[in-house]
Amino acid sequence: MIKIWKTTLKLRMIGIFLAILVFGALLTFKAFYLQVLKGGHLRELANTQFHAEIFFMPERGNIYSSNGSLLATSINVPGIAVDPMMITDKYKTAAKLSGILHINFKKVVTILNRNLQFTWIKKRVSENSVKKIKGLNIEGIRIVEQPVRYYPNKTLLAHVLGFVGINDNGLSGIEYKYNRYLKGSRRALNILHDGLGQDIFIKGFGLTKETHGDNIYLTINKQLQYVTQYYLDKEAKAAHSRGAFAILMDPNTGAILAMADYPPFNPNRYWSYKARYWRNRAVTDDFEPGSAMKPFVVSAALSEGLIKPATKINCHHGLYTLNGVTIHDVVNSFGDFTVNQIVEYSSNIGECQIGMRFKKSELFHWFNLWGFGHIPHGGLPGEADGIIRPLNKWSKIAPCETAFGQGISITGLQEAVGLSALANGGYLMKPYIIKKIVNPYGKMVYRAKPTVIRRIISKKVDNEIKYMMRLVVKGGTGQYSKLVDFRVSGKTGTGQIADPKTGKYYISKYTASFIAFVPYRHPRLAMIVVQQKPKKISYYGGAVSAPVVREVFKRTLNILNISPGKRAYEAQINAVIKPSGNKNGSSGGSGNTGAASAIEDVSYKKMFIDIHKNIMPDLKGDTIYMALDMLAPYDLRIKVKGTGFLYNQSIKPVSKIKKKETVVLRFRPL
Amino acid sequence: MSKIKMHFIALIVILAILGMFYVWTSMETMKFGYDIGKLTAIKAKLIHKNKKLVIQKASLESPSRIYKIAKKMGFIYPKEGEIIIVHD
User: Helix, strand or coil for residue A460?
Assistant: First the structure.
C-alpha cells in the first residue's frame, strides 16, 4: 500500500515538475519574445508612456546692491499656450479666451487655426486669469510657467542693470555683460508617470543648486544711487537737458558708489522706450570736457616743473590770438593771473599758455597717463575710450586747445577715475562696479580688490592742485557746490559740442559739467555731473551741474555718517557766505585768492591762541554743531536756544572766559 | 513528514516571505515616490510664494516709494548743520 502511495506521489511530483517546467519554458519563451525579439520596440513604447524628462530651467541669479538690497530677480509667471490640433470648437474657445485674456477675438482664432502642436496665446498672465482659464476645462489649453526678470526699484540704476530678453538672455547692462554668470545651466530630471499621469520620483531626484545662476553684488549703494538719480533728474528736467549723467565714486578704492543717467527708463517695460533711453551715457558717451580738463593739465605742468602755483601769466584781458586763432575768456577783466587764479576763475587764455609750455609729445603722454584715450575697464558693457588725436595729427596750437578741454574727448568714467586720482593723492585707481560674485551655495566666485594702476602725481603737486580746486568752490566758478559743514573742491567745465558733419562747433550746444570731491583734506567722495545740451537756466557747468553735486554731497555725507569732526571750524569761514556769482555760474568776483588763503591760515592760528588764552571765539554764522565743536576745549556751561545759524552769543567775541561760566547761544534759520 | 517534504515546504515559505518582502519594498518605494512628487510640488509652491514675498519686500523698500510716503507725512531732509553725529 505504501509502495503504491509512493509511486503515485512520485508520478504526481514528476507531473507537477513537468508542468512547472513547461510553464517556465513558456514564460521564458514569452520573456524572450518580449525582451529580445520585440524588446526594443516595446521599451520605446513604455518609455513614451511612463517615463518623462522634466527640464528644470535654471533660476537666473539675482543682482544686489553693496549692502545686499535686491536690485534684480527672476520669478516664474504663468503664460497661456495651446495645442490647436486638440481644440475642437475653435470659435467658441476663441471667444472665451479673448474675453478672459483681453485679446482680439480674430487674433485668437488665427492662433487656434495654426497647424501646430504648441503655440503661445499670451505670455505673462495674471493668476486670476489663469484660475478662470483652468475653470473652462478645455482640452488642449496649457498653462506654462516662464521666468520673468523683475526690477523692484523700477527706474533706479536701470541703465547700469540693463534688462533681459524673452529667452532669459541679458540684452543690456550688467545683465548682458555677466550673462554667463547669471544664467546658470539647464538640467534634466527623469521621472515616471503613473496611469493617472501623476509624477513619481524614483531616481535622479535632487536637482543640485549649481545649475542656478550666480548672484552678483555691485559696489552701488542703493541710497546714494537714489539721491544721485533724484537730483540729477530734477536738475536735468529743469535745464531741459537732452541727456545727463553722474558718477559718484570712492576715490580711495575706485569703487563706483552711484551711477545715474537721464532720461530714465523702467527696465520692467524696456520695450516701451526708445533705444536712446537705454544707453548708459556715463560710460558710452564721450564729450569735450572743456575747463574740467584744466586741473589735469595744470597738475601735469606742475609735475614737469613748467609752472608753480604762484607763477604769473598774462591773460590779455579776455582776448588772445595764437596762430590766427582767437581765444576768449568769459570775463574780460583778467590781466596778470597766478596759476591758482587761472584755475579758480577758469581762464582759457591762461590755460592755453600753460598748455603751450608743453612739447606736444609730453602733453600727449600725460593724457595717456591720466587714462584718457583708453577703455577704463570698469566692468560695464559699452565702455568707450574717448578720442585723442594721434600725435602726428596735432596742430601747432593743439596743446593750447586741449589744455582747456577742446579737441579732446573723454568719457564720464574716465573723468571720474582721473578726478579720483586728484582726490586721493595722485593714484590712478582701476574703477570697478562688481563687488563680488557668489554662487548659489554661497561660495565666492569672484571678489574685487582695489587696484592701483599707477601713481601719476606727487603728494606735493596733488596738494597744490587740490588747493586750486578748493578755491574754485570757495570763490570761483563752482560756488554753487558750496556746503556749510564740509569743504568741497571742484572744477567747472563747459565744453562746446562739434557738428559731426562740418567739424565746427555749434553756437548754442554745450556740455555742462562739474567735477568735485569732498572733504577737501581727506576726500571720501568724488563726483562728476555732466549735462548734455542744457537749454534752460544756463549752459555753464557751474550753474546746472554744481548744484547737483552740492545736493548729493549734502545727503550722502549724512547717509555715510561722515562727520565734519574737528574740521568743522574750517567751514566757519564760508559758513553763511552765499554764492556771490550770478546764476550763469561763470566767473565770480575778482578777490585776491592769496589773501583768502592767508585769512584761512590766520583763522586757524588765532583759534588756537584763543583756546590757550581762554578767549571767547566769534561764533556768528555757525551751525549748532560747529559752535559746540568750537567750544568743546573750553570749560563752559553751554545753553542752546533755537535752530539754524548763530546770531547772538551771550559772551562777546574776544572776551576773557571764566571757568564754568554759562554761555547762551542763540540760533535762527537764515 | 519526510525531510525532503519539510525542506520543500520551508523553501516555499521562505520564497513566499522573500516575495512578499520584495512586493512590500516595491510598494513602499512607489508610495515614497508619490509622496516625494507631492512634496516637491508643495515645495515649489512655497518657494514661489517666498519669492513673491521677497520681491514685494524689495518693492516696498524702494527709496522712491519711501520718499513719496515720507513727503506725504510731512518729513523733510534736515538742513545743513542740523545733524550732529555723536561719536563713542
Answer: helix
